[in-house]
Design goal:
By secondary structure, the protein is an all-beta fold. It is built from no helices and eleven strands.
């Protein structure tokens, strides 16, 4: 069974950037959708971005600031986050179908 492991979270100042990585222990099919979600303290988990072989899409709250990409050869999905805001603070999770990673914490604060 595929396992997903996220990395790249940390503390960043408002306006800064981070790149999250999600590496699968097994092979990622280029036809499978890969997504990022996030959960802020006291809030429900929300969808952030998705990528498939045909398209990418983003939540309105991150559109124009975040970029999702996939490297099939490395079995890795990335989330490049620019112009970060305090409201982006959350645990970010990688997702493929029923499989979830353990999450990586992103804190945006001065």
């Amino acid at each position: 069974q595929v396992q997903l492991v996220e990395s790249g979270g940390g503390l960043v100042q408002p306006g800064g950037s981070l790149r999250l990585s999600c590496t699968a222990s097994g092979r990622i099919s280029s036809f499978n959708a890969m997504a990022w979600y996030r959960q802020a303290p006291g809030k429900q988990r929300e969808w952030v971005a998705v990528t498939t072989s045909d398209y990418t899409n983003y939540a309105d709250s991150v559109k124009g600031r975040f970029t999702i990409s996939k490297d099939n050869a490395k079995n890795t999905v990335y989330l490049q986050m620019n112009s970060l805001k305090p409201e982006d603070t959350a645990v970010y999770y990688c997702n493929q179908g029923p499989i979830w990673g353990q999450g990586t914490l992103v804190t945006v604060s001065s």
